[in-house]
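# step 3/5: fold
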Amino acid sequence: MPTKSVTLDEVDEGLVHALQVDGRASFRLVGEVLGVSENTVARRYRRLRTAGLLRVAGTLDGAALGYSAWTIRLQCLPDAAAPIAGALAARPDTSYVYLLSGGTEISCSVRTRSAEESEALLLRTLPRTARITAVSAHLLLAGYALPDDWAGPARLTEDQVARLTPHHDATEPVTPGPADQVLLDRLAADGRTTHAELAAATGWSEPTVRRRLSGLRRSGLLRFLVDVPPHVLGFHAEARLWISAQPSKLDEVASALATHPEASLVALTTGPTNLLAAVNCRDSADLARYLTRRIGSLDAIRTLETAPVIRTLKRAGTVLPIESASAQYRPVTGVQR
């Protein structure tokens, strides 16, 4: 969906960074940290939220719940890529969906609860779509840098970050169950939904909502991601990189990539390449410098394939369903024929 043209100033960028530290930080605290009023922070947030440029999304840690993470590449007929990408973005199990260079390739991230779900998606659902000409799936084995850790142009000092870092109530960590689904669905849509609104949606009391949220966050299962288009932060050249590195140097290369401020994702994968990276650069010239100087300086890299992102259809996907892993697979048929 196109976003309105809004220029971010220092306060806006400080707000974005603050929410990346704690997506539910109060406007009062953010204002104190930034040196502006609570009303100013609230007004800036509403402006960016209304313009479609900033969203806080609550999400569960799929790895902790036993989900498998996949990155999938699909080659499509020229007139099919956009509608297929849109259908993939509508699926509840996708989190990031991109159209890549040439307009015939799609890259998306998928989480599956079981081998049966993986098989249903990768061996039956996607290959059944005639306008998809090729599919390759890569299991993510380890993450070195993750999208929710990427701060873009970080604006806050270490002291400011420390003030914003949440210290949760002394509640016991909890495991999410079916009763939490309404709560988590609301947080997936808007991670800053108030305790009163969550209480009304769940039928719980506000103290119960507060305890439940605190317990889920203390357990490490519930996190809040900031969904902001990179171009809003001044990064106009996004790309996905598929890298093959010398096996004995794989950890070294991945760790080095994870330190690059341009990298929002670095992951070890299966497949003909063994690393996936997502990078955000200022422009095409900056991307060229990144590839020739930063990537080019890593001698253990054997091959590199670069695919610029031409359209993003989904970021920070919806919350994971929390039924047991043995629950029936419920396909979304938008990519089937």
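# step 4/5: annotate
DSSP finds eleven helices and ten strands in the chain.
# step 5/5: archive (pending)
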